[in-house]
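G., the chain you wanted modeled:
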Amino acid sequence: MSNIIKNERIAFCITCMNRLKHLQQTLEKNIQDNYLKGHVEFVLLDYNSQDGLEEWVSKNMRTYIDEGILVYYKTTEPTHYLRSHSRNMAFRLANATILCNLDADNFLGKGFADYIINEFSKQDSIFCTTNRSFDGTYGRICVRSEDFALIRGYNEALQGWGFEDNDFYYRFQLQGLKPVSFHNPEFYHYIEHPDTERIADEFMFKNLKEMYIAYLNPFTSSILLFFENFTTEQYTFVNNYHLNVLVDFLQKDKPLFDDRDRITVQEKNSKGIWKEENNAIIIQENGKQYFGHRETPCFDLNGKSFYIVQNDTLKIKILLLLTAGINYNQAKKQYTNNLIVNPDGFGKGIVIKNFNFSKKIVLS
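Predicted structure as tokens:
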């Protein structure tokens, strides 16, 4: 172990909603591989998990809590998982000079904390990330606490899966911070899991009733979503990859908001309501009614022929593309119009610390 800088302290911030099975494999291993007394803490935010997380931590992790290396917080407010908000809460609860987002399915690797602390001691105005290989460690980023506060945290206007990390990194670069990647392969281990688990607790997935798709041309498709509350939303995908080759979004002089490098979601979308009567689907949108029947594989809506999507894997892939596209549009709009990120504050909420339910901590 190299010489640790006296006043440096790193906090690994973990948010968890119903991912206990991953934490059971990673949490204690990460602590044991990175224990540096007085210089490391693990902040675990139980984001209203319903899978026994609280009981497991209380029963199995008390030793680390008593030693001060693990701090357990719990909020009972969220009904759905919000990446940016949950991470902002965890970062704000940390007591460290360096903050690191750590996904519940990630293994840090032995000596990661020591490595990061020393990287920050050698260079000013940096943030540390993975090598951006777009694997399961992509969201791991280490930043100075004052730099996190300066850019006002993760963008809470981005509420679904995707692009919140890109936006976060980009805003650090706009402040003049340099991205520094770690390359030791020991720092890149994670638990493989299906895409379903990435969005299982998000609003759009939990409330989706049915999905339909319409082919418009070789580069464009429309998606129609039926939700449990009898509302509908329609979006249009445009595949722009034929316009340019994909290049690294952090490449020098490469703008983040370049539509040519991605599948985009058109800004204009439509909403409506739906109901089912006598095996017929009735959709009302923009003052007009459209009819479909359960016995037929498709129905026409405003000149588009929509077919039901029955393959669960395809549904998940479409939702991932959709939420990432919506977030991209939101971030692009804020950047283009020079809007303040999180103008009303970030990471707000009420938590309890280390099972002390008699005392609540209010993040305002």
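Residues 207-310 form one domain.

Shout if anything looks off.
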